[in-house]
Design goal:
This protein is elongated. The chain has 242 residues and is of the alpha/beta class. Helix 1 crosses helix 3 and helix 3 packs across helix 7. The protein has seven helices and eight strands, in the order E-E-E-H-H-H-E-E-E-H-E-H-E-H-H. The relative contact order is 0.14.
Length: 242
């Protein structure tokens, strides 16, 4: 027997049947007179499906493409990717006496008229992407990144000749020149390879700065810093339902 639900508006249990809509039972709340159709919550996906979604997105597929392959919704894929990043993808812990390369790349936020700049920092000794900051191509954005980099005992910061670096970095620990940021340029190429949104002249734009940050964290975790177990990638696709 179908049990009576509660009203989604006032949470009252004083509800009665009130006809059908598309073969689904309608209910009427006697307290606030709100009419509604009870929708059972969707079954939670298993861990294999979630990890498969993270793997596919981390290898360049879009949220909608992953959702079609796994017979789910793009919103679910976004939620699984976000949960994985918040749980497993952390920026490296500070180490002492390092040489850091800092550079910036751009992307679109909302529309191609609105550029989003991503400032990245790479540890030259290990090749790890240690930090990044999303914002404008201005001093305020770089200062937010620099404040976190001060936790590292930096011997030298290598950048290009942008005026922002000249104003914030001391001459003794700063080298300005593209010849010393080659490793970070290679890292930017890998980000553009795995994430279509970072390819120049692409039709892909991002809706939120938080999702850009989440995507960088995932690619750094899976491909650049390689902090994931190789067995993570060897998962069969979940069986799609008709």
């Amino acid at each position: 027997m179908l049990s009576s639900p509660y009203c989604p508006r006032c949470h009252s249990i004083r509800v009665v049947k009130s006809g059908h809509h598309h073969d689904k039972q309608r209910w009427l709340c006697r307290r606030c007179r709100y009419q509604f159709t009870r929708v059972d919550p969707p079954a939670e996906a298993d861990e294999q499906t979630k990890r498969t979604a993270v793997t596919l997105y981390g290898h360049g597929l879009s949220f909608r493409c992953v959702a079609r392959l796994l017979a789910t919704s793009a919103h679910s894929v976004i939620r699984w990717v976000t949960e994985y990043v918040e749980t497993c993808c952390f920026k490296p812990a500070p180490e002492g006496a390092v040489v850091i390369e800092v550079d910036e790349m751009w992307h679109y936020l909302g529309a191609k008229a609105n550029k989003l700049w991503i400032w990245t920092a790479l540890d030259r000794a290990t090749g790890r992407l240690i930090d990044w900051e999303c914002g404008g191509r201005d001093q305020m954005t770089f200062e937010r990144l620099l404040a976190r980099l001060r936790r590292w005992k930096v011997r030298l910061i290598c950048t290009d000749e942008d005026v922002v670096y000249q104003h914030n970095l001391s001459a003794g620990r700063h080298y300005a020149g593209k010849d010393q940021t080659v490793a970070l340029e290679r890292t930017h190429s890998r980000l553009r390879h795995w994430l279509a949104r970072f390819r120049r002249r692409t039709c892909v734009v991002s809706r939120s700065k938080e999702m850009v940050d989440c995507s960088i964290a995932l690619v750094a975790h899976l491909h650049i810093n390689q902090e994931v177990d190789p067995s993570f990638f060897h998962l069969p696709l979940a069986r799609a339902t008709a």
